[in-house]
Amino acid sequence: MDVTMNISQKLSALQVMQDAPVIPVIVLNDVGQAVLLARALVAGGIRMLEVTLRTPQALACIEAIARDVPEAVVGAGTVRSAADAQACAMAGARFVVSPGYTHAVGQACRDAGLPLLPGVATGSEIMMAQEDGLTELKFFPALQAGGTAMLKAWGGPFGDVTFCPTGGVSMANAAEFLALPNVACVGGSWLTPADALACGDWDRMTELARQACLLTRRVA
Ligand code: 3PG
Fold first, then answer.
1. How far is the CA of 25 from the centre of ligand 1 (A)?
2. 82-to-79, 101, 168 alpha-carbon distances in Å
3. pTM (whole model) above 0.85
């Protein structure tokens, strides 16, 4: 964790990526769990939290974390439209992650002053994001779309891009991704397992976050 970063300031996409080796991808069904989960991950050293817009409660969860856990930086994931981006900004999200890229989502994030990590899986998608000035991108779905071999191949033509591989990344393979010169962090859902969430096992999630923070990366 970059302890020198003032998290109350506006962040860049690179700062979001560089804060910890892993950005947890979170699915919350219960607003009552949002604050407890955020505190558990922060206790383990992870404060950039991606709450996905995959449940009806997601925006309320983002709002609760933004309000009650000032040590965390809550972001919104699974943002697929300009309207999603605007709703997240209203809820207090500080960064946006999307599974793909459209100019409309890019524009909405710029208008809202929110850093965006858009998902890309092809060279054309990277070029489209770059046309709009984005050089920090999520590689999604990382394992399914070519894994570390794809990132190595992209290192040539897209040597100015930094990636956050997400999708199929786990404690078992995260180190291979983080060893690459064009990877600043990885994303993954393994820090918040559904069974741990179901029984409110916050200590387990703190421990998973702690282990994730021990991962070393080439780009920091
Ligand atoms: C997602 O958007 O679901 C993320 O890519 C998380 O994928 P994972 O569950 O494989 O970590």
1. 6
2. 8, 11, 27
3. yes
Give the number of other CB atoms < 10 A from CB of residue 60.
15
Tell me, using a 6 A CB cutoff, whether residue 167 lines ligand 1: yes
Q: How far is CA 170 from the centre of its chain?
A: 14
The domain made up of 3-213 has a fold known as TIM Barrel (3.20.20)
pLDDT in tens, 182-195: 999 999 999 999 99
**Of 107, 109, 83, 87, residue with least CA distance to 96:** 109
- Catalogue the active-site residues: 50, 138
Going from N- to C-terminal start, the domains of the chain cover 3-213
Reduce the secondary structure of 61-72 to three states and give it as a string.
HHHHHHHHCCCC
pLDDT (tens digit per residue) in 33-80: 999 999 999 999 999 999 999 999 999 999 999 999 999 999 999 999
